[in-house]
From TrEMBL:
UniProt signal peptide: 1-20
Domain of life where this protein originates: Bacteria
GO MF entries: electron transfer activity; heme binding; metal ion binding
Identification of the protein by name: Cytochrome c family protein
Organism per entry: Sphingomonas lacunae
Pfam families: Cytochrom_C (PF00034)
This protein's UniProt keywords: Electron transport, Heme, Iron, Metal-binding, Signal, Transport
Length: 154
């Protein structure tokens, strides 16, 4: 048997095993039929979690904030790698005096509402392309908690 024929045979065997595991017959026409008859929306989509659907806990958020502490201070007028987060909720992006913002954040003119912060913290560069912030807080409940904590800093 040539190498090409061995590879073709191995490929067919793997396809047959995969289809058999799914309860489908092992011929290629059946695989095409199964794919074309499957409903387009058969895969369940994860429901999007929104800020409004969560209740933040400021005490837990203070603990979550420890991840932010390496770059951000919560003291007024004390910037670090990132700007001070004191009074961030309700503030316009690029507005902390003395901090060297990226052009993207200065030009963004975002108002840091809880909802905007919730979306931003999930993936900052998706929301503000060119931001310096690369840290992402993927867990929705942790984002809601840290925002509840930030809301106390006035």
């Amino acid at each position: 048997m040539t190498v090409i024929r061995k590879l073709a045979f191995a490929s067919l065997a793997v396809s047959a095993l995969g289809l058999a595991a799914c309860g489908q017959p092992a011929d290629s026409d059946s695989a095409a039929d199964a794919a074309s008859s499957a409903p387009a929306d058969s895969a369940p989509e994860a429901a999007a979690v929104t800020f409004a659907s969560l209740t933040g806990d400021a005490a837990k958020g203070e603990t979550v904030y420890n991840q932010c502490r390496a770059c951000h201070s919560v003291e007024p007028d004390r910037n670090g790698v990132g700007p001070s987060l004191h009074g961030v909720v309700g503030r316009v992006s690029g507005a902390v005096p003395g901090y060297a913002y990226s052009e993207a954040n200065k030009a963004g003119h975002l108002t840091w509402t809880p909802e905007v912060l919730f979306n931003y913290l999930e993936n900052p560069s998706r929301m503000v392309q060119g931001t310096k912030m690369s840290f992402m807080l993927r867990d929705p409940q942790q984002r809601a908690d840290v925002i509840a904590y930030l809301e106390t800093l006035k």
